[in-house]
Amino acid sequence: MYSSATNAKNDIRDATSEAKDNLVAMSNRAGHKVRNFIDSASDEFTHASKTVTEHVHDKPMQSSLMALGIGFVLGILLRR
User: Strand, coil or helix: what is 79?
Assistant: First the structure.
């Protein structure tokens, strides 16, 4: 009887330890995926920002008119 209880206790301890290790590994993988996603999004935003800045410097009048038009449309949409 004592041996069965000890074995059960050890089995539970091992299963708990294994579950903990699995959760830690899964959370580490998820953290790496989130970090990669954030890095990728940051790179994309930086690229888009540089592209817009170059366009504004190359064509300031066209950029101003586009901004005015977008602001006008957004103003109409948000007013509703």
Answer: helix
pTM beyond cutoff 0.70: no
CB atoms within 10 A of CB 69: 10
Q: Kindly list the distances between the CA atom of residue 44 and the CA atoms of 18, 28, 48, 58, in Å, as whole numbers in the listed order.
A: 39, 24, 6, 21
pLDDT digits (tens, 9 = 90+) for 20-47: 999 999 999 999 999 999 999 999 999 9
Six-digit token pair at 64? Answer: 């101003």
Domain ranges for the chain: 2-79
SS3 of 1-69: CHHHHHHHHHHHHHHHHHHHHHHHHHHHHHHHHHHHHHHHHHHHHHHHHHHHHHHHHHCHHHHHHHHHH
Question: Other C-beta atoms within 10 Å of 66: how many?
Answer: 13
